[in-house]
Amino acid sequence: MKKILIYITILFSLSVNGQETVYPAPRQVGTTVITNATVHVGNGQVLNNATIIITDGKIAAVGNNISIPPGSTQVNAQGKQVYPGLILPITNLGLVEIGAVRASNDVQELGEMNPNIHSIVAYNTDSKVINTLRSNGILLANVVPEGSFVAGQSSVVQLDAWNYEDAAYKTDGGLHVYMPSLLARPRRVRGAGPQQPDEDPVKEGLQKVDGLKDFFREAKAYYNQSSHTNTNLKFESVQHLFDKKQKLYVHANTVKQMLVALDFVKEFDFDVVIVGGSDSWQIADLLKQNNVAVILDTPHSLPTLNDDDVDQPYKTAAALHKAGVLFAISDEDGQTRGRNLPFNAGTTAAYGLSKEEALQAITLNAAKILGVSDKTGSIEVGKDANIIISEGDILDMRTSQVTDAFIQGRKIDLTDKHKQLNERYKRKYGLKDF
């Protein structure tokens, strides 16, 4: 009997502390009103003592002196800050759970040319990581495949769903290419000094790029044919690059890599986005001329090259903004898994951007790059009610504390594994909140 009681106690503690008890919120019914709010719209505008009306998952009204509909549910945001839901533009969220556990990874396929791979079908809505992002105000994410030269298609998901079909916000919005390094580095052998590589890595990388261009030329010819005897899945998967319904995301950091990426704009007129772009500040004017956007993946990092300023990763966002380049900020750090997104943006606000410009880099700018700005990215009438409420500045890790979050008007549960473990060990050791 004693053993049975122990087993029951263990099962009960697991059910209490398990994130599995956090269910997706039901569809919004009726009207929700956020009152007395300091609203950061996401487009640079700030409204003081404003009201937001949410009906059927959409923002019905926002501004001052707005009448509150009778019978509505009211959320008093007095003394708090209201923001659009943050958007993580590059992540392997839901594809990688524990990097060191192979069975929990579904982020890549065999082979170098996988344009027909769709990340959305592998997205795991039960990932423990998802809820930790929501607690920091991140409500949408672009889920990206990895591991190949041409890795496949990414999709935008909203972070409160039962399955990947429910999560899908914009499916197959872009194709991801990981640019070869194009840097000649000597190969080292254990116990020996530097040696020259057997093959020139620059020449080898450029050959891979030329092969990709040949693939796109053949795909374009396939696209221009009115009918096909046989269906080619790889050609079919890139057809929307030519009509610009999809974007080509090129993962590149050095100037040489980015200049090669610009060839895809010049020859194919693709809508190109540079991902990484740590040295994009050096060719900001050229990126602007070619209408190429940039996603800065990890501002909290060391410079790419030895000659760069030690604080260059913090200053790059301001340099792009000054040149008029559309840019967004991400958090690709494998340790933080995206949680530091708002604080990455906050650092750029200390190095040349204003607070609202930094906020825009993780809201409206990110939505524009991902092709979802018609639905989200700012608190404007007609858009989905993806909204967060914080007790302090969302960009400041000292004061940021998200108290409420809404995805498409649904008030979501902000419980996560971190909070559960915190409560568990506070109770164990009789600790109090500091």
Tell me the fraction of residues in β-strands, as a range.
15-25%
- Integer count of domains: 2
Which term fits the overall shape? globular
Q: Report the CATH topology name of the largest domain.
A: TIM Barrel
Folded structure, characterized:
The structure is a single chain. The chain is of the alpha/beta class and 434 residues long. It folds into two domains: 24-84 and 377-414, Urease, subunit C, domain 1; 86-376, Metal-dependent hydrolases (TIM Barrel, Alpha-Beta Barrel). Helices cover 29% and strands 23% of the residues. The strands form three sheets. Strands 1, 2, 3, 4, 5, 16, 17 and 18 form an eight-stranded mixed sheet that branches. The chain has an eight-stranded mixed sheet with strand order 6-7-8-9-12-13-14-15, sandwiched between helices. The chain is globular.
SSE arrangement:
Blueprint: H1 2-17, E1 31-40, E2 46-55, E3 58-63, E4 73-76, E5 81-84, E6 86-91, H2 128-134, E7 138-143, E8 150-158, H3 164-167, E9 168-178, E10 187-188, E11 194-195, H4 201-224, H5 233-237, H6 239-242, E12 247-252, H7 255-268, E13 272-276, H8 284-289, E14 293-296, H9 312-323, E15 327-329, H10 341-349, H11 355-360, H12 364-370, E16 387-390, E17 402-407, E18 410-411, H13 417-429
Parallel strand pairs: 1-4, 1-5, 6-7, 9-12, 12-13, 13-14, 14-15
Antiparallel strand pairs: 1-2, 2-3, 5-16, 7-8, 8-9, 10-11, 16-17, 17-18
